Amino acid sequence: MKINKIGAKSVLDSRKQKTIQVIVGTDKGDFKTSAPAGKSTGQYEVKSYAENLAGDIEFIKKIDVKEINIENFEDLNKIEKLVGKNIGGNSLFALEASLLKALAKENGKELYEFIIQTSSESSDSEDSKFAAKIKKTLKMPRPIGNTIGGGLHSKGKGGKKPDFQEFLFIANGKTFKESFEINNKAYSLAGKLLGFFKKRNDEGAFETDKTNEEVLEIMEKVKRDIHDKCNQEVDIGLDVASSSFYSDSRYLYKNISKELGRNDQIAYMSKIIKRYNMFYMEDPFEENDFRSFAELIYETKGRNCLVVGDDLTTTNPERFEKAIRMRSINAIIVKPNQIGSLLKVKQVIEIAKKNNIKTIISHRSGETMDNTIADLAVGFGCDFIKTGIYGKVREVKLKRLIAIEKKLRR
Ligand code: PGA
Ligand code: ZN
User: Fold this and answer.
1) Looking at residue 190, what is its pLDDT?
2) Helix (H) or strand (E) segment spanning residue 373
């Protein structure tokens, strides 16, 4: 593919903080990607920028386009060799995604189609056959939406807030569009039950001063109402993000002041899964404690609860392999900028599929209007997408998925 230019600049994310945008120009147009930013970042994520944002921008601007020779997904390894350690995870993700968008266009394909084509074993690129194949093998992810917030992402009310970071609804509609609508309905109902407290946090989730359990009671009531009154299904999940309140071997709960050691935290997480029939539990233990994750899976087996690694695994193939060896998780969060390389993102998803582990592609708390992760979700066949529910930067990813589904149903 002939590239005319590669540019980079800083743009503002939803928290009004600077992030990188990379632009790849070809005869077919300009292809842009901007990177998101986390707040409760994992200790084992790659750095966002090698030294700083300005340094990465300068490096990318100086890349000689003649040195870039890329024709397919696997050629990203040439790019990774070329840039080496001169840029961080945010910049590498934005650069690789823009190159893939340009390549997809060059091949007359949408980004998700291009990824499906490059990751499928057969080289059946004849258009009509390819289109039929995509329709047959296509899987839409289920949306996971942040509804009520606590922890690091929230300010709370009068200084009080739940300790868990995200209270999540996971709709189970017949189509992606129906799931999108169910999550929206669940979000509004939860807002009403909270007493119309109108403040929302970084991710568009409602703020509250309620305790973890009080919020879970509300989530449960919404789930029941949606089942009984609308004949639709929604599951409940939690991102505990427990590394953010772990210190000196204790989990420090502030809302109802208590400190739990490792064993008590396992018992508490297990009790919540059983009491509230939880479908999804992310980072219930701090990011080094592979063993407690495994004990929770053992304690709750037969309950079908996803025990999910985010800070534990940081989209890192080696950490993921360790989690598999230790039977720590049965689902993994995939955040492209945690690792930067889309080759490694692909590798993580392949490892997951081989080991029967569910995949959740995810936004970050600081987001832009970029919708790349929607295409990655379909392209890589992820089981879930975590994007939030409320706010333009969240909706734009969900709307892209609705558009993809519509196209594929025609
Ligand atoms: P982050 O948090 O984007 O602020 O890192 C999201 C999460 O923990 O899932
Ligand atoms: Zn998380």
Assistant:
1) 97
2) helix 372-380
Residue 402: count other Cβ atoms within 10 Å of its Cβ. 18
Neighbours of ion ligand 2 (CB under 5 A): 239, 282, 310
Centroid of ligand 1 to alpha carbon of 368 (angstroms): 14
Instruction: Ligand 1, residue 42: give the atom nearest the CA.
Output: 5
- pLDDT over threshold 60, residue 121: no
Judge residue 174's burial from the number of C-beta atoms within 10 Å of its C-beta, 0-12 exposed, 13-18 middle, 19 or more buried.
Answer: exposed
Treating both helix axes as pointing N-terminal to C-terminal, what angle do 89-106 and 342-354 enclose, rounded to 10 degrees?
A: 90
Residue 277 confidence (pLDDT): 97
CATH 3.20.20.120 for domain 138-408: yes
DSSP one-letter code for 152: G
| DSSP code, position 109 | -
pLDDT reading at 267 higher than 70: yes
Q: What is the pLDDT of residue 135?
A: 74
Given the CA of residue 153, which atom of ligand 1 is nearest to it? 4
C-alpha torsion angle, residues 52, 312, 284, 37 (rounded to 10): 20
Condensed to tens digits (0 to 9), the pLDDT of residues 159-189 reads: 899 999 999 999 999 999 999 999 999 999 9
Residue ranges matching CATH 3.30.390.10 in the chain? 5-106
Our mutation pick for probing the ligand 1 site, out of 310, 360, 394, counting the most ligand atoms within 8 A of Cβ, is 310
Whether residue 229 is predicted with pLDDT greater than 80 in this model: the reply is yes
CB-defined site of ligand 1, < 6 Å: 38-41, 239, 241, 310, 364-365
Q: Which ligand is nearest to the CA of 152?
A: 1
Q: Please, where in the chain does CATH 3.20.20.120 lie?
A: 138-408
130 has a pLDDT exceeding 90: no
CATH 3.40.630.10 assigned to 5-106: no
Residue 25's Cα: distance from chain center in Å? 28
Pairing between β-strand 166-171 and β-strand 142-149 as defined by DSSP bridges: antiparallel
Q: Is 180 helix (H, G, I), strand (E, B) or coil?
A: helix
Mutate to test the pocket of ligand 1, among 17, 39, 311, 315 (most ligand atoms within 8 A of CB): 39
Contact 307, 332 (CB under 8 A): no
pLDDT digits (tens, 9 = 90+) for 384-393: 999 999 999 9
DSSP type of residue 207: P
